[in-house]
Write a structure and sequence with these properties.
The protein has four domains: about 110 residues, Trypsin-like serine proteases (Thrombin, subunit H, Beta Barrel); about 100 residues, Beta Barrel (Thrombin, subunit H), CATH 2.40.10.10; about 90 residues, PDZ domain (Pdz3 Domain); about 100 residues, Roll (Pdz3 Domain), CATH 2.30.42. About 20% of the residues lie in helices and about 35% in strands. It is built from twelve helices and 27 strands. Strands 21, 22, 23, 24, 25, 26 and 27 form a seven-stranded antiparallel sheet that branches. The protein has a six-stranded antiparallel beta barrel with strand order 1-2-3-6-5-4. It has a six-stranded antiparallel barrel with strand order 7-8-9-12-11-10. The protein is elongated, with a radius of gyration of 29 Å. The relative contact order is 0.09.
């Protein structure tokens, strides 16, 4: 949710809905129920913290391009607004001069809040990204130039510093983990440049994943959040910051009651590192993981369904020497339970680099303990390609099982499906439509590497392993599958 441009100080306000004359007088005035009004403490909270909430004003130079002024229908309520806006961009006679087609300054507005009386301000990274100049505007209108202490794109947080001759009003973080769904919260910010705006609502949900990054775990609230609220605080009824307003879901661009805030628990760890190092130093385990579904859990003998399934291990990562292997399910990391896959990246990232971490895994139905010396995550790191393997036998053997046509991996099939030399196993040559394999998005050219955590090198081995699983009464078979590039994933197929 980017800052909202403020190209003109002149605004035109019009009613959203026309009301017939006298209609308001005909309606009885009914007092709203107490529950609808919300708790009376909202005013006390706002009065207690509002001085610590600031406006963030940024500007940057952009290349201006000439072009025609948009044509609006006669009588449009926006006609006067756009005329004022574009008048400032046109040269004499209404046209763009060559000079005006060059760089120009664009302003944007956002929100932030003070966490240290000496001038430490928190906001969103997207509020200040690409800015040439950043100013923090206090609640009394005082404008202070800010410098960036550190910022993190993955969590969309930034730490700013302003110079001040007097202590500033600051607020403290609260415990976002203690929030309950339905609890009242207060958002304060600078929507559409209207600084010091206070809105209230409830916590609608927690741990929301909106696919914005690897560490998504947002608080969802129906407190009104709009453009310009980004970076502003979300308070509990004690006046503690329990979230940082970051995004909204809105087809119209305005608030529809679905806003998202970074929980304070996640934010505090990031802010501390940004203040200390000016950058994030995240832990790195060196594994590729996937979700443990119910059928995968059944295949592994894992009860209840939980954890993160290791689909691949980086050859140069910390997990390799610790003895963690593909097919292991990580159920506990550094004493913290891994309830689902998305828990692991956040916990690993927040763990100090170089720490010896106890890791509990489930391997073939039994719990084991490993110790990993955590490395540091580098954004540029990529998994290493495995070494080239020996050529497979040329004779092709086709088997029909699980809705799949299988074949030994020959040189001809490698060329046909462009399978890397480093990949070995049994190649899928066709998938039966409507089968469980088709539903799991297996496709010709995928290579089965393991069946029930045992390596397979030919189609006969796959069939024998499936037959053995049926005799054991297994309801599903867990396949380790590689694509043509060698990227691995686990797929559970029903045997019924």
């Amino acid at each position: 949710m980017a800052g909202f441009p403020n190209p003109s100080t002149r605004q035109i306000w019009r009613p959203a809905v026309a009301v017939a004359a006298g209609a308001l007088l005909a309606l009885p005035l009914l007092a709203a129920p107490a529950a609808a009004r919300g708790p009376e403490a909202i005013a006390d909270v706002a009065d207690q913290v509002i001085e610590a909430v600031v406006n963030i004003s940024t500007s940057q130079k952009v290349e201006q391009r000439g072009g025609p002024t948009p044509q609006l229908p006669p009588g449009s309520p926006f006609e006067e607004f756009f005329e004022e806006f574009f008048k400032n961009r046109r040269g004499p006679g209404g046209g763009d001069t060559p000079q005006q087609r060059g760089p120009r300054r664009v302003n944007s507005l956002g929100s932030g809040f003070i966490v240290d009386p000496q001038g430490i301000v928190i906001t969103n990274n997207h509020v200040i990204s690409d800015a040439d100049e950043i100013n923090v505007i206090l609640s009394n209108g005082e404008r202070l130039k800010a410098e960036i202490i550190g910022r993190d794109q993955k969590t969309d947080l930034a730490v700013l510093k302003v110079k001040t001759e007097r202590p500033l009003k600051a607020v403290k973080f609260g415990d976002s983990d203690s929030l309950r769904i339905g609890e009242w919260v207060v958002a304060i910010g600078n929507p559409f440049g209207l600084g010091g705006s206070v809105t209230a609502g409830i916590v609608s949900a927690r741990n929301r994943d909106i696919n914005s990054g690897p560490y998504d775990s947002y608080i969802q609230t129906d407190a009104s959040i709009n453009r310009g609220n980004s970076g502003g605080p979300l308070f509990n009824m004690k006046g503690e910051v329990i979230g940082i307003s970051t995004a909204i879901y809105s087809p119209s661009g305005g608030s529809i009651g679905i806003g998202f805030a970074v929980p304070s628990k996640n934010a505090v760890a990031v802010i501390e590192q940004l203040r200390q190092f000016g950058e994030m130093r995240r832990g790195w385990l060196g594994v590729r993981i996937q979700q443990v579904t119910d059928d995968i859990a059944e295949s592994l003998g894992l009860k209840p369904t939980r954890g993160a399934l290791v689909a691949g291990v980086d050859d140069k990562g910390p997990a390799k020497p610790a003895g963690i292997e593909p097919g292991d399910v990580i159920v506990k990391f550094d004493g913290k339970d891994i309830k689902e896959m998305k828990d692991l990246p956040r916990i690993v990232a927040d763990t100090p680099v170089g720490k010896d971490v106890p890791v509990t895994i489930v391997r073939k139905g039994k719990e084991e303990s490993k110790t990993v010396k955590l490395g540091r995550l580098e954004d540029a790191e990529k998994p290493q390609v495995a070494a080239r393997t020996d050529k497979e036998e040329d004779k092709s053997v086709v088997k029909k099982t699980l809705g799949l046509d299988l074949s030994n991996l020959t040189d001809d099939l490698r060329r046909r499906y462009r399978i890397k030399d480093s990949v070995k196993g049994v190649v899928i040559t066709s998938v039966e439509g409507g089968s469980a394999a088709a539903e799991k998005r297996l496709s010709p050219g995928d290579v089965i590497v393991e069946v029930a955590q045992e390596a397979v090198t030919n189609a006969d081995a796959v069939q024998k392993r499936i037959d053995a699983l049926k005799k054991e009464g297994r309801k599903s078979a867990l396949l380790l599958v590689a694509n043509a590039e060698g990227e691995l994933r686990f797929v559970a197929l029903t045997l019924q």
